[in-house]
Specification:
Number of strands: 5
Number of helices: 7
Structural class: alpha/beta
Largest sheet: 5 strands, parallel
Strand order of the largest sheet: 2-3-4-1-5
Helix content: 25-40%
CATH architecture of the largest domain: 3-Layer(aba) Sandwich
Strand content: 15-25%
Distance between the termini: 28 Å
CATH topology of the largest domain: Rossmann fold
């Protein structure tokens, strides 16, 4: 299920030369890239995924370049090369937009979106599932788990019959622990 909590689905992001979706892992950056790739009527784009790999500039005939997982500031050189090559770039980035601004502010029109700083993300999700909630329960969840749907789903599944999110959250926090494992 995709929830457009940034309300960008109806914006033509491709009229700007650079669009940045920024925040941590699992915040929805890549989902937004996917949304905009699927909205293109022609196959006039290339998708690059470079997590923990070296990103290199290559000439492409496609007009749009979608780059997922920019995690290294040095990769912005490649973004610059694509912009100088006349491409329109959409990135999912762990690099803060202020760094892009320092490099690109003189010659490029751009958009940026923070994918995980809005309580609406969690509220829209709970609304869509018909859960009751209050601002206190949303804040409590975000304080503990950030704005992450994965943890939200785990908590909701703790008591599937109950549609009262504050009760489910309190019960979960009392009874359960989420353990994170690094598979590297």
């Amino acid at each position: 299920m995709f929830i457009d909590f940034l309300n960008v689905k109806n914006i033509n992001i491709l009229e700007k030369k650079l669009t940045i979706f920024f925040w941590d892992s699992w915040s929805g950056k890549s989902t937004y890239l996917d949304l905009f790739m699927k909205s293109l009527t022609a196959r006039d784009f290339i998708f690059l995924f470079h997590k923990e790999k070296k990103i290199v500039f290559k000439k492409y005939k496609e007009k749009y370049i979608f780059i997922d997982e920019i995690v290294n500031i040095y990769w912005l050189y490649v973004v610059l090369r694509y912009l100088l090559d006349g491409k329109t770039i959409v990135v999912a980035s762990h690099i803060h937009p202020s760094i892009y601004k320092i490099i690109f502010w003189l010659f490029v029109k751009w958009n940026y979106f923070f994918t995980d700083i809005n309580n609406k993300k969690i509220e829209y999700y709970l609304d869509d599932l018909w859960y009751q909630y209050n601002s206190e329960s949303i804040e409590k969840f975000i304080w503990k788990f950030w704005w992450n749907f994965i943890e939200l789903d785990i908590i909701i599944n703790h008591d599937k019959e109950n549609k009262n999110f504050p009760e489910i959250l309190n019960s979960f926090l009392q009874d359960c622990v989420i353990t994170y494992k690094n598979n590297k």
